[in-house]
Design a protein that fits this description.
single chain, Arc Repressor Mutant, subunit A, Beta-Lactamase, eight-stranded antiparallel β-sheet, 34 strands, 41% helix, transcription, GAF-like_dom_sf, coiled coil, GAF, transcription regulation
Length: 997
């Protein structure tokens, strides 16, 4: 047979896998499954079939490959052109004695010829076979000798029904009379030319030995695979010739940390480090194994998760009988633990060597025969030997601390050799130093035993402690000195400090601690702190001390000490011998914190009162709300509000809360020379500032009322003036059981409360003045006003003031007229009077002009306005000033007169009488101005009116009026529109009501 036929015989099973799909491509895995072999074996056979031209192949994807059956050629068979006799002769000569069974069939599929091998394989008689229909022969004879007659008959007869294709398959012949059991490979194809064209030739190859070999090989492979899989201490896997994984055992999964599914098909370089891959180690190892048969290597390898392990690796090349490289077997042993142990052993050995060499301690190793086996250089220095001098145990004289010589058995080495026990820090004296003094040593020994526990060696450590001995002596001298200095330091510690031993007994108490604890140090030293201070068993401070001692962690906390009656901050610093305790009296700080909390509470009260007084409609309601709120506060006992009677210079009660009749019982005066006028109330009346007494029982000024303080249970008091625009509306009295109450912050908050109440009362009085039908009209005259204000100024012309408008923040606008010859006088007033800020001539007419005057805190106008009054009219002519003032009946006329005379001493009150207002419409408009309009809206309307904004043509634009009011133009127009809407609504409603009547 030629080489192609040999390949067909050797790899018939692989080629047969394509019979069912002769044109469809198959993968190596599909072929391996079909013929029951490993993928690698299938791959090698497929490649060989490609080389022989029986299969074709190509690469698919990143790492895949497929194979398919080569197309059959259509060349004429070698029998073409031969005569029938010649053809039979050729066939007989070629196949007659060959090991290949042959059936030659004509176009009717009758047997034309069979050879001896066919007779032998199937147990046939050629004389009875030739000329028979092959179909009948299969059914009646051949079917009886094949193992699966049905499948055999179906497959062969199918080629007769469709004689257009070649067929290949394997079949098993059963043993029988004159025949052996064997495996045959059937190959048949149609005859396309010649005498038997349309017929078919069938060849049967004996593959019994091949099948046996394959079966044995499969069994061996199965056994080997089972063995490999059972071994988990080694990673054992196969690589294809390209270095890709084709098998993967459990050991590989464990060592590499990679599953079989993830590993198969991956290149072996995946499991090398990046450095090895960069050095081409994987490829070089495979090349070496292929060249030399195997390669061994140790180095780092990489698991799937990226971790490294130290591995011993053997790679062996696998070749077939022809020497063709089939792949590689790789065995890996994880030596990480062994390498780590070796590394640790090396490290420990190096460490011991280095310690031995660099140790400042003399180290010596003796055998059980007293022989020195090893020593470092420091040992010879300690022993006082030269580096070339030998030493034996006992060569150096040693004496004990008492100066008596030590026998060998009394020395550390002798004791260990005798008893087998270690000796620790035995102090001895050795050879004398150059100064004649003996040297001191501290010697320790440790026995080394063999595996049976027998003494094998003794390690001796010797330290010279001569300097330490001297230092210890010096330290003892310094200790007393340091103790003395420490006592002085403790004496300078500002905090209270005491020390306790581990049983909580006093060992030291400084003066400050003794002062706070209430016991001298002498009586405390040695006593238990809990007993000495009478601390309850459940006092939390006990747990604090015990925790600090147990954990050896410092503690810091604040507490109120019941035994001491103070707030204290305590810091505990533990040591093994006891506790150091620092504590400081922080009662003052705690009181300050409590005062701050009280102040915050007071601010809340003040805000609540502020909100409440706004909603009240009478002065009495305002005063009652204020007193009730103060009396209900936790920090105060009671409160009252009183007026000042200017006729009697006495204080008259108005409202009380939290107390009954106190203000009637207490004697108060406004006379500063009277002791009853020198208390907080009298001082507040004169100063218009909050006045306090923080300790009623020690303040000399409060002496007249001390009995009352005891009776009513208060220690401090405050008098808060109710003031607005420098007008005193009354006094608020507040009383507290706290000593040292009403500190600066609290007094400031109460002062703000007085201002709020004063503002509210003033607003009510202004409202009452505008809305009431009866007011007090006062006529004042100030002679020589111009001369007194601006000396030397001509008093020609006339100035008339018709309207005064409060703008806010003490600013007022006045509108009036001035004759031409008095304009210079008006301008001179602006220059001379500090509260006249600016004047604007608004419209010039024949003979006179209108003007706008801006004032800031004018004393007369402010005093009148703050009491709910107004300047109705003022006129300056011939140098004199005449002024008409309207005031509510509740206002003290004398106070207004006093203010005018204080400012202008020549002021005279000319007339005083009541004026009745009867215009209901005007009353309603006044009510609307007061009740419906805000302060800003009212100021905008009045300023616009008097500035001529509503005249036509306008004397002032909106922007000019806005500038006078120090507001933006859009803000002016917004306030004006809202005010107009409210006023017009009131007028229309009033007119409608009048018509209805």
């Amino acid at each position: 047979m030629d080489s192609a036929e040999s390949t067909r015989h050797a790899f018939a099973d692989a080629l047969a896998a394509f019979d069912s799909t002769p044109s469809a491509p198959l993968t190596a895995s599909e072929v391996a499954d079909a013929i029951d072999c490993s993928r690698r074996t299938a791959y090698n056979r497929l490649e060989q079939l490609v080389e022989d031209g029986l299969l074709e192949t190509k690469k698919v994807g990143a790492s895949g490959r497929v194979w398919w059956r080569s197309r059959p050629t259509t060349a004429s068979p070698p029998t073409a052109g031969l005569a029938h006799g010649s053809y039979e002769s050729v066939v007989s000569d070629v196949f007659g004695t060959a090991d290949v069974g042959v059936f030659l069939l004509d176009s009717d599929f009758d047997v034309v010829w069979i050879n001896d091998a066919t007779v032998h394989y199937f147990g046939l008689d050629s004389a009875t076979v030739v000329g028979r229909d092959k179909r009948q022969l299969i059914r009646e004879t051949i079917g009886d000798v094949v193992a699966e007659p049905g499948d055999f008959a179906e497959t062969v007869i199918a080629t007769y029904d469709d004689n257009t294709y070649a067929e290949e398959f394997e079949c098993r012949i059963t043993a029988g009379d004159g025949r052996d059991e064997r495996w045959l490979e059937h190959r048949s194809k149609p005859i396309e030319t010649g005498e038997y064209a349309g017929g078919r030739v069938e060849l049967y190859y004996d593959i019994t030995d091949q099948k046996a070999s394959e079966r044995a090989l499969r069994e061996r492979e199965h056994q080997f695979r089972s063995l490999v899989q059972a071994v988990d201490e080694y990673a054992i896997f196969m690589l294809d010739p390209d270095g890709r994984v084709v098998t993967w055992n459990e050991g590989a999964e464990r060592i590499k940390g990679c599953s079989r599914e993830a590993a198969i098909g991956r290149h072996v370089s995946t499991f090398y480090t990046e450095a090895d891959c960069a050095e081409n180690v994987p490829k070089r190892n495979l090349a070496t194994a292929a060249r030399d048969g195997f390669v061994r290597d140790e180095g780092w390898r990489v698991r799937k998760d990226g971790t490294r392990f130290w591995a011993n690796v053997t790679i062996s090349a696998i070749r077939d009988d022809d020497g063709t490289l089939q792949g590689y077997a790789k065995v890996i042993q994880d030596l990480t633990d062994r390498r780590e142990r070796e590394r640790q052993l090396h490290h420990e050995r190096d460490l011991v060597e280095n310690l031995f060499d660099v140790s400042p301690t003399g180290l010596m190793v003796f055998g059980t025969d007293d022989d020195l086996q090893r020593s470092n250089s420091r040992a010879k220095d300690v022993l006082g030997l030269s580096h070339g001098e030998c030493y034996a145990a006992g060569d150096v004289d040693l004496v004990g601390p008492d100066g008596q010589p030590l026998s060998f058995e009394e020395r550390p080495l002798g004791r260990t050799l005798k008893t087998g026990e270690a000796v620790t820090n035995q102090v001895v004296q050795g050879a004398q130093a150059t100064d004649g003094d003996r040297r001191w040593f501290s010697i320790s020994t440790r026995p080394i035993r063999d595996d049976d526990g027998n003494l094998e060696q003794v390690v001796v450590c010797a330290d010279e402690i001569t300097e330490l001995k001297e230092q210890a002596r010096q330290l003892e001298q310094q200790r007393d000195s340091l103790q003395h200095e420490l006592d002085e330091v403790f004496a300078r510690v500002d905090d209270a400090f005491y020390a306790l031993d581990d049983e909580y007994r006093f060992t030291y108490v400084n003066d400050r601690a003794a002062e706070l604890l209430g016991h001298p140090e002498a009586t405390l030293r040695g006593r238990n702190v809990w007993e000495a201070m009478d601390v309850d068993a459940d006092d939390p401070i006990r747990e604090r001390f015990e925790t600090a001692m147990a954990t050896q962690e410092s503690q810091s906390f604040e507490r109120f000490s019941e035994p001491l009656g103070i707030w204290e901050i305590v810091r505990i610093y533990p040591s093994e011998s006891g506790l150091s305790v620092y504590f400081r009296d922080i009662t003052k700080r705690k009181e300050d914190e409590q005062e701050l909390a009280a102040l915050n509470h007071l601010n809340t009260i003040v805000r609540d009162i502020t909100d409440a007084v706004i909603d009240q409609s009478t002065r009495e309601e305002i005063e009652q709300v204020v007193c009730d709120a103060l009396a209900e506060a936790d920090v105060y006992e009671f409160a009252w509000i009183a007026n000042v009677d200017p006729k009697t210079n006495s204080v008259q009660s108005r409202i009380e809360a939290g107390v009954d009749g106190y203000i009637d019982e207490v004697s108060l005066s406004v006379d500063s020379d009277d002791p009853h006028g020198q208390g907080p109330t009298g001082r507040a009346i004169h100063t218009h500032d909050v006045q306090v007494t923080r300790d009623a029982f020690s303040d000399p000024a409060f002496e007249p009322w001390r009995d009352l303080a005891r009776d009513y249970g208060y220690q401090s008091s405050a008098a808060i003036p109710i003031v607005y625009e420098d007008t005193l509306y009354g006094i608020i009295g507040v009383y507290s059981a706290r000593k040292d109450a009403f500190q600066d912050s609290e007094s400031e908050a109460l002062g703000q409360l007085g201002e709020v109440v004063g503002h509210a009362i003033a607003a009510l009085e202004r409202k009452h003045a505008l809305m009431t039908n009866t007011v007090v009209e006062l006529e004042f005259r100030i002679p020589r006003f111009v001369e007194g204000t601006c000396p030397g100024l001509d008093a020609d012309g006339e100035i008339t003031l018709d309207q005064t408008i409060p703008v806010g923040d003490g600013v007022y606008l006045q509108y009036g007229t001035v004759t031409d010859d008095a304009v210079s006088t008006l301008e001179a007033f602006v220059d001379e009077l500090p509260f006249w800020d600016d004047v604007t001539i608004m419209e010039q007419a024949v003979g006179d002009a209108t003007f706008e005057l801006r004032l800031t805190e004018p004393p007369v106008v402010s005093a009148i306005a703050s009491r709910g009054g107004r300047v109705k009219h003022a006129h300056i002519g011939d140098g004199d000033l005449e002024m008409t003032v309207h005031l509510p009946h509740s206002v003290d006329v004398h106070r207004i007169t006093d203010v005018l005379q204080d400012t202008y001493p020549e002021t005279k009150l000319m007339t005083r009488h009541s004026v009745v207002q009867t215009d209901d419409m005007a009353t309603r408009v006044a009510e609307a101005l007061v009740e419906d309009l805000t302060d800003r809206q009212r100021a905008v309307v009045e300023a616009a009116y008097h500035a001529g904004f509503f005249e036509w043509p306008r004397r002032s634009s909106g922007e000019e009026v806005a500038d006078s009011l120090n507001i933006a133009g859009p803000t002016f127009h917004q306030h004006l529109r809202l005010a107009q809407q409210k006023l017009l609504g009131e007028l229309v409603a009033g007119a409608t009501a009048s018509v209805g009547e």
